[in-house]
Write a structure and sequence with these properties.
With 109 residues, this protein is mostly beta strands. The protein has no helices and seven strands. It has a five-stranded antiparallel β-sheet, with no helix packed on it.
């Protein structure tokens, strides 16, 4: 279960860039650093989470090469995806919200 939840800030429109841990603005782009590599966070591409959203990250400013995901709850870039495309942050326990409209089972009728 996530700790230090930022669930009240889950609406991406209400969360200011400075509220996202471990980020900075570089030449107008929201960025984070992973082992010395700068990644670009796309606030327009969010996936729901139980504590805070996950944002798509890219290796390039043009956002053509996806890097992975950024956890808006703790700032981790170590987000993993299982074979059902559910996201999980090992650092804080934030995971893909099962209650969300993005979460479904194709076999369910």
């Amino acid at each position: 279960m996530p700790t230090d939840s930022r669930a009240d800030e889950a609406d991406t429109a209400d969360t200011a860039d400075e509220d996202l841990p471990g980020t900075e603005t570089t030449d107008g782009d929201l960025t984070a650093t992973d082992d010395g590599t700068t990644v670009y966070i796309d606030r327009d591409e969010a996936e729901s989470g139980t504590a805070a959203p996950f944002f798509h990250t890219y290796e390039d400013e043009d956002r053509k090469q996806q890097y992975g995901y950024y956890c808006a709850n703790c700032g981790s870039l170590a987000v993993s995806m299982d074979n059902m495309e559910r996201l999980a942050c090992p650092d804080c326990g934030n995971d893909h919200a099962e209650r969300s409209k993005e979460s479904y089972d194709d076999s369910r009728l």
